[in-house]
Amino acid sequence: MAFNLTDAKTRMQGAQDALKRELGSIRTGRANPHILDRIEVEYYGAMTPLKQVASISVPEARILLITPFDKSALEEIVRAINMSDLGLNPASDGNIVRLAIPQMTEEGRKDLAKQVKAEAEKAKVSIRNVRRDAMDTVKKDKELPEDDVRNAEDDVQKLTDDNIKAIDVIASEKEKELLTI
């Protein structure tokens, strides 16, 4: 049973990590380099993640500075940002790209808070699926005594509850970040 519990822990932690990555790419009104994680640039004919062709820094609270490693990639970086769903307008001076993060409206903040809740619910569903798989594995093991089955089910449920609480904490922190002006 320890192997299954370890497997369940790993998979539940994976759901938390996926949620953190997803929430990191949600724009909050402050400059956060993680909003560019999903941007891919066509670089020498291959789609390449932006962070592999440029360095991204935050010189001011609402400015992202993108410095390409190769100046020839500058136009492609600008094009990729323009084509993304971020809604940001890059400004290029020939050497670097500046992204000004606009102040968010109250309505926009509330919409993003709803998106955070939806992503958190997806993570919770993933954790519940792991719990179901672990419970099924325990119940199918005919060699385990009844007491061990009950103890294993309790352990899986406690692990699930702890991970659901962790998801709630992650989501509430992101919502708080979104709703503060």
TrEMBL record:
Record domain Ribosome recycling factor: where: 19-179
The highest taxon in the source lineage is Bacteria
- Name the UniProt key words of this record, in alphabetical order: Cytoplasm, Protein biosynthesis
Where does the protein end up? Answer: Cytoplasm
The region called Disordered is annotated at 136-155
Indicate the principal place this protein occupies in or around the cell: cytoplasm
Q: Which Pfam families match?
A: RRF
Q: Which InterPro entries match?
A: Ribosome_recyc_fac, Ribosome_recyc_fac_dom, RRF_sf
Report the function annotation for this chain: Responsible for the release of ribosomes from messenger RNA at the termination of protein biosynthesis. May increase the efficiency of translation by recycling ribosomes from one round of translation to another.
Q: Which NCBIfam families match?
A: frr
Record's family?
Belongs to the RRF family.
What is this protein called in UniProt?
A: Ribosome-recycling factor
The organism is Leuconostoc gelidum subsp. gelidum
